[in-house]
Fold these 2 entries.
Entry 1:
Amino acid sequence: MAEDLTKKAAEMLLNGATLLGEPCPYCSGVRVMKEGQALCISCGRQPEKKDISTSESTDESASPIEKTLQKKLTILSAELEQESDHEKQQGILKTINSLLETIEKTKGKQ
Ligand SMILES: [Zn+2]
């Protein structure tokens, strides 16, 4: 189930979704946003759209490692957007997948 969500999130990122700085209000999971819809990759909930600001909403509770991972993800999703080579895209997606999993694990330990 969670694996499906991670895959879906990776697909969304591939299709131009962005990573949300704000964690999921239900489970503090990582969320991706596309066309105003935020999807939590942890619990799969899509909270009703309201002013989800992508502006520097730094997660106060995020640990330094988490912040680093999220920054990395942002960079990777930008790379993914620019990459036209399918094999390289797959490589980036794999990295994104493992990063997302790592973030989830970090959160789970809190
Ligand atoms: Zn959630």
Note: Residues 34 and 91 are 22 Å apart (CA to CA).
Entry 2:
Amino acid sequence: MPKEKQKHEQYNRFASVYDAMNADMHSKLMVEYCHRIFKKHGIRPEIGLDLCCGTGTAIDLLSQLGIKMSGLDGSSYMLAQAAKKLKGRKIKLYHKQLPNFKLLDTKSGEQCRFDLITCFYDSLNYLLTQRDLKRAFKSVHSHLKEGGWFVFDMNTLIALRTLWDGQVYAGEKEGIAWIWRNEYDAKKERAHVHATFFEEQRNGKWERFEEVHTERAYSNPLLKKLLREVGFAVKGYYRCYQFASVARDTYRICAVVQKR
Ligand SMILES: C[S@@+](CC[C@H](N)C(=O)[O-])C[C@H]1O[C@@H](n2cnc3c(N)ncnc32)[C@H](O)[C@@H]1O
């Protein structure tokens, strides 16, 4: 296994408290934003795949827009939460890792192809090398129909260098508390979150658990170059949640790209 490949023990116990911590709020914002993106770009997807779907919130909401959704994630714990949320709705959930994945239609044996593929939150920032990111873009490209759309958001370099470096975030809600210590390693261009969680158990005792998450950001010109190289036309490249152009101080971008 390449040195840089992350194992997905990260989304282990975190999975069971993800929604309770309101971490699913981003998916809600993104689906509302997607609705506007679809209108602006004339996107009318019938069948979609949410990559790194986590606890399934985006799948749930995109399905409510009438799209037949499936999901993929590398963490079986996150997928278990998604399965609970989507129970009884005949939504396919794939336990697969980026960057290289291949989804086959169980009836025809052919590769599945979608009108729309989404990937929200920091998910693509978990790919720590340019090579892996490009491979992931290739995998996405090969699972889209001709003219199909890929919509994703990502943290920018400025976000990891400033919002992450040396910052401590803490929060608490009924039965759960967390402290996240963030740091940025400028030499290696990696951001690390040392996340400590405290969860109240049924017997009233509190349990502590920890996860370390590592992310990398890529420059805007590089992202666009990689997308074009694998065969996408970049139709929109926005400050996330808006339709304004990306600026130097943009912390999160949203790319709307179409298979050529
Ligand atoms: C920040 S969460 C986002 C989850 C969801 N998209 C959302 O918006 O709430 C990142 C997700 O990416 C998944 N993930 C990270 N790296 C992955 C990889 N290489 N392959 C598959 N899934 C991955 C994690 O398991 C986790 O569910």
Note: The longest helix spans residues 25-41.
